[in-house]
């Protein structure tokens, strides 16, 4: 088990290489033209940020 303490970084590199290759393989399956043709519409915003602060908290200027 002494080799594990010396060469742990090799195991980490092999795992990262495997993850990297799987990501590349999955990204090759994506067809951007097909996605853009069938892109779902975005839902409207439901938070109404423009209406949450209607009242004016600033003091009125005196002329």
TrEMBL record:
The chain crosses the membrane at residues 6-24. It is found in: Cell membrane. HAMAP family: UPF0370 (MF_01566). Residues 42-51 have a biased composition (Basic and acidic residues). It holds the Pfam family UPF0370. It comes from the Bacteria. Residues 35-63 are annotated as: Disordered. Belongs to the UPF0370 family. InterPro entries: UPF0370 (IPR020910). It is a single-pass membrane protein. Keywords: Cell membrane, Membrane, Transmembrane, Transmembrane helix. This is UPF0370 protein E2L00_16395. Signal peptide: none annotated.
């Amino acid at each position: 088990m002494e080799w594990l303490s010396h060469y742990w970084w090799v195991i980490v590199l092999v795992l990262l290489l495997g993850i990297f290759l799987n990501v590349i393989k999955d990204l090759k399956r994506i067809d951007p033209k097909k996605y853009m043709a069938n892109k779902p519409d975005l839902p409207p915003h439901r938070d109404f940020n423009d209406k949450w602060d209607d009242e004016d908290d600033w003091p009125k200027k005196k002329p």
